[in-house]
Amino acid sequence: MDVLASKLRPGERLIYPKKRGALLAALGHDPVLARRGPERVKRLVIALDTSGSMPDPVVRWVTDLVGQVDGTEARWLSFDGAIMPFRPGQSVHGGGGTDFGLVRDYVEGRLAVNGERIDDHPDAVIVLTDGHAPPITPAEPDRWIWLITPGGDDWPDRHRPPMACHRVRPVAPDDLSP
């Protein structure tokens, strides 16, 4: 109980959900505790590969999404041979080679960008890329999610330890209509 309580933020408490707990017990599952209090905001780093090999429609698709991740604190980065943070409404630049190591070093607090370092550990790092660059091994590979564009190299899927790796295709606004 002390260990679990140490993970709570001020104002949060652990409770035993009676109805859900009774249902789980009836199904033969172990009892569970739930956290109550202010909802925890997830911290994300979303890194967009803007190297010369990335398709322009993919870059436009992602930059249109900036600022639309509910329930999160997101740091948006574009990168090629350098890290370039950006905010909603800003254009992204790139065209050079791709260096995943820069993203890893920035996320892990070893690299300052514009004089700032990340001082908190993100819950997840999402990298949208074509995967064409030397592989990296992050300190916490289970927090990294790689979104690979069509025709890209899905090396994170074969990496040891494995990392989440998914093929994506950009969605045009017309594709979203009912």
Structural descriptors:
two-stranded antiparallel sheet; 22% strand; alpha/beta; single chain; disordered C terminus; 178 residues; elongated; six-stranded mixed sheet
**Main sheet: which strands, in order across?**
5-4-3-6-7-8
Please tell me the overall pLDDT.
80
What is the tally of helical segments?
A: 5
Largest sheet: 6 strands, mixed
Share of residues in helices: 10-25%
Helical/strand content category: alpha/beta
Shape: elongated
Q: Which strand-content bin applies to the residues?
A: 15-25%
Structure summary, number of beta strands? 8
Distance between the termini: 48 Å
Any low-confidence stretches, pLDDT <50, length ≥5? Answer: 173-178
Rg computed from alpha carbons, rounded to a whole number of angstroms: 20 Å
Tell me which oligomeric state these chains represent.
single chain
- Secondary-structure element order, as H and E? HEHEEHEEHEEHE
Give a description of the structure:
The protein is elongated, with a radius of gyration of 20 Å. It is 20% helix and 22% strand. The N and C termini lie far apart (48 Å). The relative contact order is 0.14. It has helices spanning 2-6, 18-26, 56-65, 100-107, 155-158; strands at 13-15, 34-36, 42-49, 72-79, 83-85, 124-129, 144-148, 164-167. The chain is built from 5 helices and 8 strands, in the order αβαββαββαββαβ. The model is unreliable at 173-178 (pLDDT under 50). The strands form 2 sheets. Strands 5-4-3-6-7-8 form a 6-stranded mixed sheet. It has a two-stranded antiparallel sheet with strand order 1-2.
